[in-house]
Amino acid sequence: MALSAQRGDKLRVRRGAAALGDAPAAVAAWLRACMAADGDRLFLWTPVLIATGVAAYFAVDFEPPLVGAMAAAAALALAFIPLRRRAAAAPLAAGLLCVALGFGAASLRNHLVAGPVLEKPQAGHLTGRVVAAEETETGGLVAVLEPSSFARLAADELPRRVRVNIRLKEASLAPGATVSLRARLMPPPEPVLPDGFDYARQVWFESLGGVGFAYTAPEELEPPDGWASMLAELRGRIGVRIRHVIGGPAGAVSAALVTGERAAIPKAVAADLRAAGLAHVLAISGLHMMLFGGSVFWLVRAGLALVPRLALNYPIKKWAAAVALAGATFYLAISGAAIATQRAWIMITLMFIAIMLDRPALSLRNVALAAIVILLWRPESLLGASFQMSFAAVVALIAFYESDRVRGLTSSPHRIGLANMPRRIGAYALGLAFTSIVAGAATGAIGAFHFNRIAVYGLAGNMAAMPLVGIVVMPMALLALLLMPFGLDAPALWIMGAGVDGMLIVAHEVASWDGADSLVADAPLHALLLTVFGGLWMALWRENWRYLGLAPMLLGLALWGTAPKHDILIDRDAALFAVRGADGKLMLGAARPAYAAEQWLRHDGDRRTPREAARSSDMICDGGGCVYREAGRPVVAFAKTPDAAMEDCALADIVIAQVALSWRARRECGADVVLDYFDLWREGATALTFDEDGKVTVVTSLQMRGNRPWVQRKRKN
User: Fold this and answer.
1) What is the pTM (predicted TM-score) of this model?
2) Is the C-alpha dihedral spanning 319, 323, 326, 327 positive or negative?
3) ∠ CA 99-101-106, rounded to 5°
4) Is 430:409 a contact under the CB 8 Å cutoff?
5) Residue 206 has what DSSP assignment?
6) Are 522 and 563 in contact (CB under 8 A)?
7) What is the CA radius of gyration of the chain?
8) What does the alpha-carbon distance between residue 452 and residue 560 come to, in Å, rounded to a whole number?
9) Which residues of 235-270 are buried (b: 16+ CB within 10 A; e: fewer)?
């Protein structure tokens, strides 16, 4: 018996060793089987590869030649033709072609939007056509103009568009009109951190070459004309009507849901919505377009179904889809056609076209098609949080609801009656919970990366408020638009306002809970890329190998807090600096400029106000500047005058001068690092980091942004 047992153990060991030896082959076979089973899902990776090409364009620190980018795409397209029938080479060739298409589309888009940008602040008379005008919370206006003349600029130096803030409450603007006013315009601001958000890059692709404010009220020189002006005027009248009838914050929010004009929303209300996880309600995107277009589709189909002859003999579902598509297009027009709204319109257009062609309306293939169109049309959208969050939510939700088990849990009974009402309500509540959880999980990392915020109680806020938005607010908005030409919209607007009031009450309550709006410090880019790639791997594949995506996702989340923190920050105007103390917190030299101070603290995940962060016993300030001293740390001096800078050179390790220093003064200064006004003027926001050996590394905004068209290269003095 003992001998037999021993032989059995040896046999099991040999079998185990053989199994271990065959493990690589078994894994390879399993991967091949998964790939074969998911072969029809390869198309879903097309927008991911195009996005890779777009990202590569923005990642390089020089401007690639347009001819080279287009030639590379054309060459790969020609190479793909003979390889498309080869099973082994076709996927690789197609992938390279998609990457080249993304790179070429971004390069071409840059060429199409390129225009002059102001080199320095200037003031003078501005004459131009009003492209858009939006009322602010304080009663002023924010206007986008196409200038025909400004100050003493030549015609070829005029920006294609400028944004002007008009703080005068009595001012009025009609889109399409030609106006004249006196204004001060400046170049679009640079990042407040070397690796921070680049507003100048964003507005470059909007053809905005200057931003500023008006000294005087605009004077209309020519009245508006053309259909675009009529549409803009209609949009403005709709917004005014909604705000007037509903009134208060609810009126401002209601107008934003229809016209997209958000400047009139009080900051406190916007903060409550953000803390409650409801900020997405303010951006007219997929949710609004789906509710609006879906309501039109349901109403038209239900009305046609009441006529038996039509319902039994004609494709009323397709008719309803066509009418709903027209309604969604009208909604796109009156909402201002923002980039997020355009994306939503493309997606819902594909959905209604699929219905008319008897294809599944909601599928990952349709989402992929929409992403391809947007990435080739507006490649810069990839860099925005709106694009990333909207597609992440849609992809995650469709992939989640592809499961038969999930659909079974959230499907409502077909029969209508009181007996089935509890089940219908339960299915709706469960579906809403699943949707909130899945969408929140899919967008949480992206929101934290871009905004350094996490809405901890977002599930509670969405569970309580979204039924009001879906059942009351958006249907009443549609009804109000239908009745508005007849002057019968007041009851519908009153109900809509009551629904928005309820949503704002929920937002305020959830925002008041402890820790509702949590700040997180900056994350490294590779952490976000790993997290998103893992999520895409899990969503786009169908077979079990999808769960391999958990590895990069968890690794990305584990690396989230590993971003290096700068020890000294200096703003682009040399007006503010901050030093990181031994406790890891930033100490500000002053509380102003407030915007830069707030952004520094937000990127650090620090909830203190600039005033609170400017109070420190280690920071001593007087009329000549500030000096930071802390045991074991370098002495840092921030000088406001040349004399103060020379005094600080004798005792400080690092001297930052708010004024220009002569070449001789810099040479005679005994500090290890000397930066003056012109250094910061040329290089932009600057950060210094100390290593363990005490060596100082200097990183500037200009270095991080590279030599790109939206980056101004300032001459040396």
Assistant:
1) 0.87
2) negative
3) 100
4) yes
5) T
6) yes
7) 29
8) 11
9) bbebbebbbebbeebbbbbbbbbbbbbbbbbeeebb
Sign of the CA dihedral with 45 first, then 47, 53, and 56 last: negative
Give strand ranges (E) for 421-571: 453-455, 517-519, 568-570
Distances (CA, A) of 44 to 30, 95, 386, 540: 21, 12, 20, 7
Tell which residue, 690, 698, 682, 666, has the closest CA to residue 572: 682
Query: For residue 118, what pLDDT is reported?
Result: 94
CB 619 within 8 A of CB 611: no
pLDDT on residue 599 = 93
Chain-centroid distance, C-alpha 616:
35
Name the range with the highest mean pLDDT among 254-268, 330-344, 534-548.
534-548
Q: End-to-end alpha-carbon separation of the chain, Å?
A: 95
- 79-89: per-residue pLDDT in tens? 998 888 887 78
3-class DSSP assignment, residue 710: coil
d(CA 217, CA 180): 9
The tokens of 67 are what?
């001819």
Tokens of 400: 């989640």
Q: At what angle do helices 286-305 and 316-334 cross, to 10 degrees?
A: 140
Burial class (CB in 10 A: 0-12, 13-18, 19+), 192: buried
Three-state secondary-structure class, residue 465: helix
86-102 CB burial, b ≥16 within 10 A, e <16 = eeeeeeebbbbbbbbbb
